[in-house]
């Protein structure tokens, strides 16, 4: 890996390079996505079936688009029992963590006759998109469905692309069934997002769409936002490790590669105060690349978006980490807890040498759907909050309104909204 001394100029160049990976920079595909969305909106099922044949080579019809109970039973028979058990253990951890995020309605009253409050309501219908093809991630199935189920969403619908035989990955089906999905449809790509956003004869319209996907899925979600809600426009995966001389270079190298293997556009960055550690981590990375699969993907990722950055002290490391605002941040230092308190911008923070990033991906419980491309500066991980909405509650008696009604009339009049003022004044004529 390249070792770079972190100057102001180097930091600016790195930030500019990382931001090139944003889905917002792929405008050349927007017209294609726009056409697919319009086609599905107009022709509904017919367009969905045509695009599924074109892109996935599968013959999908109204009769077989929905996954049957028999197909789910078949999936259980094909998945190793030990993996089913691991999925259930992970599911329990994820559910326990998200249960602590639940919000409840509240109401405050006063003797003067006022009641103010907040009514929390789960979304009615949510669509979860799950990628297919080369990337099959049952862990993402759990992470997207569990918070919706914990929030109390009435109907959770999943779409995922089929293979050429019209089959869905057994691992995906088992994870979905365990997590509590009610309906699963065999459709992927931008056409799946369109079907969930607008509804077709077979696929129900939903209120919100969540889940990862390729650039066409990301752009489709961006285009339908406002017609329905979405979770986020996710970019390629990224990891940033802050380490000092106490870190184990073999562990750090392994963790950097755990994200580099996702995608040629994934980013893996080490920020360290130790030149010796920097050199050892680089050597360990070279050693791992000789024995791990997905070598070509990792090499391309590191070549384009991999850095080992040397800083003079941990204060400078924190400053750089906050500017990069990484999806995953590991702190492997003598006192990681103290450093963690200075971090403002990160999707998920992992503390200590035994809290490696894949622990969060699969098992610990916190959600692994995280903000990318610097959006951790203003976005949070997927949570139960994403599947609820809030209504304000206001109730005043005449006795409570009377002493303040002239104030309201004055305020409305100052804005030249005489009908507003009148609405209050008529009650005290």
Quick summary of this structure?
The chain is an alpha/beta fold and 429 residues long.
Provide structural commentary:
Helix content is 45%, strand content 17%. The chain has 18 helices and 14 strands. The chain has three domains: 3-22 and 235-365, Rossmann fold; 25-230, Nitrogenase molybdenum iron protein domain (Rossmann fold, 3-Layer(aba) Sandwich), CATH 3.40.50.1980; 399-428, no CATH class. It has 429 residues and is an alpha/beta fold. Helix 2 (30-43) packs across helix 9, helix 4 (69-78) crosses helix 7 (170-179) and helix 6 (138-151) packs parallel to helix 7 (170-179). Strands 1-11-10-9-12-13 form a six-stranded parallel beta sheet, with helices on both faces. The protein has a five-stranded parallel beta sheet with strand order 6-5-4-7-8, sandwiched between helices. Strands 2-3-14 form a three-stranded antiparallel beta sheet. It has helices at 8-19, 30-43, 45-56, 69-78, 81-99, 138-151, 170-179, 189-198, 215-224, 249-260, 275-291, 295-305, 314-324, 336-340, 357-362, 398-401, 405-414, 418-425; strands at residues 3-5, 106-109, 114-122, 125-129, 155-160, 183-186, 208-210, 229-230, 238-243, 267-272, 306-310, 328-332, 348-351, 388-396.
């Amino acid at each position: 890996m390249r070792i770079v001394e972190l100057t102001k100029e180097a930091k600016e160049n790195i930030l500019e390079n990382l931001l090139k990976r944003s889905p917002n920079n792929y405008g050349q595909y927007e017209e294609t996505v726009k056409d697919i969305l319009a086609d599905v909106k107009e022709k509904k099922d017919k367009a969905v079936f045509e695009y599924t044949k074109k892109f996935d080579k599968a013959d999908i019809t109204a009769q077989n688009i929905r996954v049957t109970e028999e197909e789910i039973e078949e999936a259980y028979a094909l998945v190793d029992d030990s993996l089913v058990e691991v999925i259930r253990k992970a599911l329990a951890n994820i559910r326990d963590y998200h249960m602590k995020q639940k919000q409840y309605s509240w109401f405050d009253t006063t003797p003067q006759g006022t009641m103010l409050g907040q009514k929390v309501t789960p979304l009615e219908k949510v669509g979860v998109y799950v990628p297919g093809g080369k990337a099959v991630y049952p862990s993402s199935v759990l992470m997207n469905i569990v918070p919706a189920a914990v929030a109390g969403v009435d109907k959770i619908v999943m779409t995922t692309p089929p293979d050429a035989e019209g089959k869905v990955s057994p691992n995906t089906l088992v994870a979905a069934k365990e997590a509590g999905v009610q309906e699963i449809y065999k459709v992927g790509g931008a056409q799946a997002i369109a079907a969930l956003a607008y509804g077709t004869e077979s696929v129900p319209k939903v209120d919100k769409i969540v889940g990862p996907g390729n650039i066409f899925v990301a752009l489709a979600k961006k285009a339908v936002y406002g017609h329905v809600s979405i979770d986020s426009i996710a970019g390629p995966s990224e990891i940033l490790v802050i380490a000092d001389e106490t870190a184990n270079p073999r562990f750090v190298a392994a963790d950097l590669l755990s994200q580099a293997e996702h995608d040629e556009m994934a980013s893996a960055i080490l920020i360290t105060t130790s030149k010796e550690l920097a050199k050892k981590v680089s050597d360990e990375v070279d050693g791992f690349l000789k024995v791990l699969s997905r070598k070509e993907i990792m090499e391309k990722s590191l070549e384009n978006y991999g850095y080992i950055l040397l800083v003079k002290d941990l204060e400078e490391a924190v400053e750089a980490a906050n500017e990069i605002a990484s999806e995953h941040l590991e702190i492997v230092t003598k006192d990681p807890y103290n450093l963690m308190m200075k971090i403002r911008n990160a999707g998920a923070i992992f503390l200590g040498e035994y809290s490696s990033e894949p622990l969060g991906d699969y098992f610990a419980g916190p959600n692994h759907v995280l903000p990318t491309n610097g959006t951790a500066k203003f976005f949070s991980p997927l949570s139960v909050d994403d599947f609820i909405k809030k209504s304000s509650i206001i109730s005043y008696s005449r006795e409570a309104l009377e002493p303040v009604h002239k104030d309201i009339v004055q305020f409305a009049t100052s804005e030249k909204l005489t009908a507003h003022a009148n609405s209050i004044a008529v009650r005290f004529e």
